[in-house]
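target protein:
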Amino acid sequence: MKALCLYFQIHQPLRLRRYRFFDIGNDHYYYDDYTNESIMRQVADECYLPANKIILELLKKNKGKFKISYSITGIALDQFEQYAPEVIDSFKELAKTGDVEFLAETYSHSLASLINQDEFVQQVISHSDKIEYFFGSRPTVFRNTEMIYSDEIGEMVANMGYKAILTEGAKHILGWKSPNYLYCNAINPKLKILMRNYKLSDDISFRFSSEGWKEWPLTSTKLVGWLNEMDDKEDIVNIFMDYETFGEHQKKESGIFEFLAHLPQDVILKSKYKFSTPSEVAAEFQPIAQAHVPNVISWADEERDLSAWLGNKLQNEAFQKLYALRDDVLAVNDDRINKDWKYLQASDHFYYMCTKFASDGDVHSYFNPYSSPYDAFINYMNVVSDFQIRLKALKDGAAVDPKELQHQLIQKDELIAKYEQQLSELKV
């Protein structure tokens, strides 16, 4: 029997407060608590709690026949603990059914896999520890931040003992091949690869409420019809999306919750598919081929690459400057420093600096606290400068030269002016 694998990503960034140049060296608290709490409460009330209530009812009603999987970032779990502990309780209820699988990922929703293997491994271990603490079992399947993947990243994940990894069924990687099969890592074939069917996933997560879409309205019956029309030789369909699709990206009024409530019965009674978790797919099916991914892919934007986070010089400068501090962070080993280090690595900070336009612009503006990529860069670099001061003071007690800070500010302003000019030329 064919398998339908449903996976949902859960993440909420920890947004920085407006941190000005004159705060550097004077104020070491970086977070916008009011905005973070407000958004978390909004998404909890509109998405997590009502969706979890529906999912729990479906799991109990279709015991053993309906299965689902999640990954929840460490940053999201930290905010649930602080602002919405009832959300954690609701996920614990889902875990008790035995039909929910929780996946591993980086604690900080970071890009560590691209720059520092030791940091990457440490974050994955920390995240798995937290998942096991809350939900009672240790993950055996991995999902990297934003489904970032390459052959080398897969090898690192295999060496950590994970059995499978989720990633994007990117066209430029698959070519004529279908994402609806199981693949394996090109370096270590023991690692199984589940590839997202981006068309069906995006039909739900992006196009569901679009009245201009030729397939609108999308119903569970229509989706099951599409599944049944697929090639009989294809083994699996992986529908991967943000959990915020339910009630947040697609509002309650769109009928998204009714779609969710009817989907399991329609799949169970009217299709050739059974629901499977990622670990079940990896255990039951055999890979049809190695997936050769020499260059890094992701599930973001049309390019399915890293350009959402590291596509311009502002992003790359911020990224390199942050990770240049890692040795000092380890040397200092201070609790508050370690916490800030963890939160400053979130990929969202670099995402806000993206200067891409066209079809991906609306996605990049979603819950973006900044008016422009340059504001995001300035704010983040001010925070990192203060973080660097604290590190230096704790490490060797030496004072930081104010002239050096002024020099850094001038360099930053010059870089921003240069890219604003280039951006204006692109718009003409």
User: Anything to note?
Assistant: Residues 2-291 form a domain with the 7-stranded beta/alpha barrel fold (CATH 3.20.110.20). The chain has 18 helices and ten strands.
